Amino acid sequence: MPSIIAKALELSRQELLDIGLRGNTLLHFKPRSESLTIVDEISVEIFNILITEQKLMSFLPIPKGKENNNIEIFDQLPDLFSEDLDPKRHTDTRLQTKLNQDQLDKKLIKINTEAETYFQEQGIDILYLALGFLSWYEDDNSELERLAPLVLIPVSLNRTTAIERFKLKYTQVDLGTNLTLKAKLKTDFSIELPDFEEETDITDYFSKVNLAIKKKVRWKIVENEIHLGFFKFGKFQMYQDLDSKNWPDGKVPSEHPIIQSLFGEGFHSLEDNENSETVDDLDESVSGELKTLDNFHFISDADSSQTEAIMQIKKGKNLVIQGPPGTGKSQTITNIISESLADNKKILFVSEKMVALEVVKRRLDNCQLGDCVLELHSHKSNKRAVLDELGRTIDLGKPKIDDRSVKKSRYKEIQKRLDNYCEATKQPILNSKINFVDAVGNLLRYKEVTEMYNLNDLNIESFENWSKEEFIEGAAVIKELIAYLNEHKSPSRNLFNVASIDNISPSDEKFIEGKLIEISDLIKKLKTEALKLKESIPFESMISINEVNKIKNAIDLLKTKPDLTDINCLTPDWFKKGQNISDVISNGQNTKEIYNKNSSILIDKAFDYDFTFIKKTYSIQGSKWYRFFYKDYRESRNTFKNLLKVKQPSVPESINLINEILNYQESKKAVFKSEKNLELLYGDKWKGLDSNWSELKEAYSWLNQLYEQIENNKIPSDFPSLINTKLDPNTLFKQEEIVKSLNENLKLQVEALQKKLEIKVEEAYLEMDIDSFLNQVDNMKENLEDLFTIARYNLLCNKLNLLKLSEIAALGFDWSIPPKILLSLYEYNWHLSLVNSAYNSRDSIKYFDGIGHLNDIQEFKILDNELAFFAQEQLVLKHFNNLPNVYAPGEMALIRREINKKKRHIPIRQLLLKAGNAVQQIKPVFMMSPMSVATFLVQGAMEFDLVIFDEASQVKVVDALIPILRGKQIVVVGDSKQMPPTDFFSRTYENEEDEEENKTGDIESILGMFLAQGVNENMLKWHYRSKHDSLINVSNQEFYDGRLMVFPSSGANEKATGLKFNHFPESIYERGTSRTNPLEARKVAEKVMIHAKTNPELTLGVVAFSTAQRDCIILELERLRRQDSSSEKFFSKINLEEFFIKNLENVQGDERDVIYISIGYGRTVDKRVTSSFGPVNREGGERRLNVLITRARLAMEVFCNFTADDLATQSTTPFGVKALKSFLKYAESGVLENRFETGKETDSPFEDEVISAIKKMGYEVEPQVGSAGFFIDIAVKDPRKPGKYVLAIECDGATYHSSVSARDRDRLRQNVLEGMGWKFHRIWSTDWFRTQARQIELLKKAIEIEINQSNHTSNFVKVVKNTNKDTPIQKIATIQRNKVVHNVPTVNKYKIIKTIPNLSFYVELLEVPVSKISDYLFSILKEEGVIHITDAAKRITDSYGIGRIGNRIYEKIVQGAKYGHQNNLFFYSNEFLYHDANKIVEVRDRSELEPSFKKIENITPEEIQKALINTISMAFSLPKEEAISEALSSMGFNRATEKASTIVSAEIAKLFKEKKIKQEDNRIVIN
Q1: CB neighbours of residue 521 within 10 Å
Q2: How many degrees, rounded to 5, is the angle at CA 803 between CA 800 and CA 807?
Q3: What contacts 1175, CB < 8 A, 6 or more positions away?
Q4: Which residues make Cβ contacts (< 8 Å) with residue 485, sequence separation at least 6?
Q5: Among candidates 1290, 1301, 1299, which has minimal Cα distance to 1266?
Q6: DSSP tag of 928
Q7: What is the pLDDT of residues 1487-1514, one digit of tens each?
Q8: Measuring CA to CA, how many Å separate 1381 from each of 899, 1384, 1516?
Q9: Strand 36-38's sheet: what is its strand order?
């Protein structure tokens, strides 16, 4: 694989090689339209003036009178002054040309335009003044002389106003050799061209070149051949950079992981190896982090789409960020850089477009992180500028930073509250899939309807737990019921309304009809027979089926009637007091039975005797054997004996007998208690205890049954009065049998009919009189069609019952109001249950306070805005803390020397090679173009954690490889719908109408390459730039499928006029000659001048479709500016966003308040509209158009000599031309086909309620105002200014909930819209639900205030302040710094212990216990730190006044060391005392110690290694000898002796072995 990739890389590298002769000005220069020949000058003098003396030079036209005046007067620019030739012309600062003044001015304007264009597009200066040329030939036989420049001075043309002449200035960029010529001579002729450097004497250099070419007879140096022109040799440096031979081992390009992914199997395998996190895991983590944004350091606003991208980058992902026009790419890059700085990463930001680099740098400056940036592109890359910037940065004072923890904590608290409310109103309620806002909206919508009809709430069990699917299913059935009720009468009026049958077959219908006929006949017969029966028994009730049955029951009861003579039969007491009667009869029977049983045993007196005492005595004493000793027992026994007729029984038998007598007495008592009542009932049959109880019981049972059936409505109530009448039993019973038979048959038939009809209320017909029943049956026969309608109703009821909507079914049975209200009632009650559920279960809703919530939002806005500043503070402090010490050795020493030098600085490439680590520490962010990377960064010498490409669609793959090789992680920012890489500029000399024939490679840009290889991709979606949606609508529809979130215009900013079409049919496109439209160019120039005078506060840019048209406009404007210089300030280059005139190819990355577009092409002199539009016709031409039409913030005007309808297109017409036609059509008409815009439906029913309330106030509203992606919920129209809105009303509905973070939801979106002139009023659904009247009152007041303000004030001034950026940068405050203080790096001084505590002077040292010696050593170690045992011994002997350490004393002290080690007092190893086994040491400065106290051999290896690590870390990189010297110096040794060097070298070897350090280019660095 590596060999395959290496081959692919080499093929790519060959694209950069250009040592051919065609068009190569570095090898074969020929004067042309974009060059200026200098005559009658001396190269040496010019070099001295420009380089040595650093003076500006001007240009002289041909002297007056020597002009070749062959140009028309009207074509000349106004001649401002005349100059005579200076006799000292070779040493003055004026360069002689051979052009007249007009030609010279036009030539310089052309050259300057092209130079600026290339500088802005490629990031390098290609304008050089070439001094001295090599005249050479390809071979000995060639007659064609070639001229190659030898000395190239990078220069720029400068002037401040149009009335000034151009001045030539040396740009301070390093001088160098013509590398292309050097390679050509070496490759083809084996000639080594001498190197040219700034210090080189030009005369000497010419001499060296002469010496090098001396073997070539015809070759010579033309020393005073001088030309100003374009020379591009940067590609050759890039070619050399990609040569794998120039890369160190282990860093060859083909082995780089990113290169392997680009040229190999793609990024999936690389990403999988680096991070096993799945896409779902990533999405989940991103979703969570988007809400909290914890651990992020955004220094500028970031919407959710930007934040998602930054999160992936923070996770280490290689990423493509698709940034459509105006979506905040530079803003995102700024935050990517800040996040990377927070993670201590080194960043390389790369773009060929100068505007891209400058915009990000400006943002970083505004965010106070500009000090972290080193610009190494264009004029920013000269040695002095780089060194000055490094010096300025390291001299920064420490920033003054306040404690922000309280505010940050408060921010999180408020953010959580805001998020909680949003979640509470956003999350579906239970299973409903309906959120609180929608539930409230629907509730309010249906509440009015239900209140209108005064309907009661439904009581549907667990209604709030219903799912949306269940609810919809129920609604569908209710809609069926509504349709039924609309078509048919109320089910309660249906003759078959008691039927439950839900389907009727033809056979069912026939059966039912038959049954109805049969039942009708039976009823008629029953009526006849029942009348006969009634004649026999004179009942007073009407004849009904039920009454017939009652009569039948009465007759049946008569059959069992007992003798009731003398008994009162007419009282209902037989049933009402039945239980009492029954109890008396039972007691009477009981007394009789007990008396009859015991009358032969007891005398009659005994039946009334009180046996209580006897029973008690017998129960207690009777069972004891000694009972006879009890007096009570003896007396009770004697008394009982006197009541007996027989021999006295045993005690148990006696007790049983006594119990029976007591039972008798109770029954007797009960009989006597009710005696009067029973005497009234039974009359003479009542005999007291002597009554015939059997006879009484029989009478009671019959009468009780009689009255029970009367009570139960089974016998006629007047039947008791007929009991004692004389009836003919035979006739009566016979007739009863007939009725009974008919009745039973009727019952069978009715039951059969009920079963078929599924009538659940049985025998309901029994209550009807026979005539009514017969009438009903006959009606049923005649209206059998009602069967089908009731069956349909029953089917619906069954469905409703299954859905637990029986209450709805019941309401429908007798519904009398419009049927559709049933559905409203259903809707109302479901949403009411949902709202109540959410209200009761969600605290954020339950305790919501609208005023408090708005206050939270306001505080959140302030804190969120400040959060960016807090992040800036943190990062500024972090940068300061990371700055290397000015006085550090190694790389910082080199930088310090270079800063202090006046001249002869080493080249930037050498500075970065030798001190790159220190430079990166000072400037962790490099801003470069691909070419400057190859120019300044030696292969493999400098790495970056993150490489960011901007405007990546314009960066060729081969160009991008050079920065990629320096990075570990790559972020590619661009837009595949915007400009592809182009060589259009390099061929501006050719016919542009043929440009569409140019073909690109398979993969045209690094953006396409990364996408093709499967890298992760994120799209930025919020469009900030256009303050009028017409400026982005075509692009959004044609190129982005409407995916951009475009903020609507309020109409408040009068300058935000959007798109306008200027038609000049009289102008002509000069196709065959100048390829320009002069009249159109003149109109554009005039419009520019008008703008400069009337709207100078608005920035302006002009874009032409071709270079020729651009140049034509430039000259027209030049003429007008020279005629009227009053507006020159507007055209000044020092403006932040300077005025420009560019062609279509060069405008990507630019934006202005106003853009003028000059089509140029179009209708020719023969009145035909050409279909050729230069680069728009090329493949990808639509992308160029997309860039062009999205550059404006406020307004865009198109200048054209034809209309969209004049432009004929067909199927083969390039997409770019078709898109142009669509754009022109929109510019003319303002109508965009397929545009989805204002007028869409509201997001929620809650918004409908608000709209209804506003309309009732008399105001006009527009729901969902917007054109794409983002819509304002409700906009109130200005009643006096059509097209303007006075107030935006935002509800907490779908738009509010769609934001993933509080920042998007509660600040960013509203900030952007307020910047476009919108005024806001927020309405919370919870407030509206609780206090609707109050909220309507507040809403009305807000509308009235804005209407009044609209009538008296203008928002224009405020609006235009923020038009110069896509997104405003919040700069809350400037971070203040303390005065700079540079401290020489120091280490702690070595301090020798003065007194050893608890020293035993009264005991000889040799007699001191080992434990005591150990204590001495511990005290020394504690005071001095890690120490050699001999040094420790000397401290002890010195304290004892012993001059020399003998063997015995030394051994004694060693024993003490071993004792302390064994007892964990300290750690003793290799003759060194350490605090513990970790052997932690600190470096100590021994410079103040006496020589005898500092011996290198007595310093621990750990301390030496730490001194080395500290030294190398501080120095970033050092040669070995310097590392040894500096390490020894830090430990207090003045010089590196041989012995010391040997010892330190040994420790260096150990560090190498342990891979703690490594060697790069003969320098030691930390590994």
Answers
A1: 14
A2: 55
A3: 982, 984, 992, 995, 996, 1105, 1144, 1145, 1181, 1184
A4: 812, 815, 819, 822
A5: 1290
A6: E
A7: 999 888 889 999 999 999 999 999 999 9
A8: 18, 10, 22
A9: 36-38, 220-230, 127-136, 146-158, 167-170
Structure tokens at 598: 């015991």
Range with the largest mean pLDDT of 99-103, 486-490, 1276-1280, 1297-1301 = 99-103
Q: What is the pLDDT of residues 732-776, one digit of tens each?
A: 777 778 777 888 888 888 888 888 888 876 555 666 777 888 888
The pLDDT value given to residue 9: 86
- Cβ neighbours of residue 1545 closer than 8 Å, sequence gap 6 or more: 1520, 1524
* pLDDT tens-digit readout, 973-1003: 999 998 888 653 343 333 343 343 322 236 8
Give the separation between CA 1460 and CA 1469, rounded to whole angstroms.
12
The single-letter DSSP state of residue 720 is: G
Distances (CA, A) of 162 to 61, 72, 78, 1059, 1109: 17, 21, 11, 30, 20
| Distances in whole angstroms, Cα of residue 542 to Cα of each of 87, 129, 534, 551 | 151, 133, 10, 11
Parallel, antiparallel or unpaired: strands 347-350 and 944-949: parallel
**pTM for the full predicted model:** 0.76
Quote the tokens at residue 1349: 């303000």
DSSP string, 181-199: HHHHHHHHH---PPP--TT
Tokens of 460: 């549907």
- Over residues 1161-1212, the pLDDT tens digits come to 999 998 899 888 988 888 888 888 999 999 999 999 999 999 999 998 888 8
Helix H, strand E, coil C: the string for 1322-1346 is EECHHHHHHCHHHHHHHHHHHHHHH
Identity of the amino acid at 1270: F
Helix (H) or strand (E) holding 1045: strand 1045-1046
Q: Which residues contact 310 (CB under 8 A, 6 or more apart)?
A: 296, 298, 302, 332, 335, 336, 339
- Sequence length of the chain is 1567
Distance CA(519)–CA(510), nearest Å, equals: 14
Mean pLDDT (whole number) for 190-201 = 88
Cα-Cα-Cα-Cα dihedral sign, residues 1295, 1296, 1301, 1305: positive
Question: How does DSSP assign 1511-1534, residue by residue?
Answer: HHHHHSEE-HHHHHHHHHHHTT-S
CB 1445, CB 1433: distance < 8 Å: yes
Residue showing tokens 């074969």: 28
Contact between 691 and 585 under an 8 Å Cβ cutoff? The reply is no
Cα separation, 513 vs 323, whole angstroms: 79
Is the pLDDT assigned to residue 1240 strictly greater than 80?
no
Tell me the C-alpha distance between 87 and 896, whole Å. 47
Residue entry with tokens 């979640």: 423
1247 close to 1053: Cβ distance less than 8 angstroms: no
Contacts of 39 (CB under 8 A, 6+ apart): 96, 97, 98, 226
Output the furthest CA–CA distance in the chain (Å, rounded).
185
Closest by Cα among 168, 165, 147 to 157:
168
1350 vs 475, 758, 1283, 1317, 1422, CA distance in Å? 47, 73, 13, 11, 80
Arithmetic mean of pLDDT, 511-538? 82
| CB neighbours of residue 187 within 10 Å | 10
Nearest-angstrom CA–CA distance, 598 and 621:
25
Q: What is the rounded distance in angstroms from the CA atom of residue 1496 to the CA atom of residue 1499?
A: 5
Q: How does strand 1320-1323 pair with strand 1388-1389?
A: unpaired
φ, ψ (nearest 5 deg) of residue 423: -65, -40
Short-list 883, 830, 1227, CA closest to 1061: 1227
pLDDT at position 379, please? 63
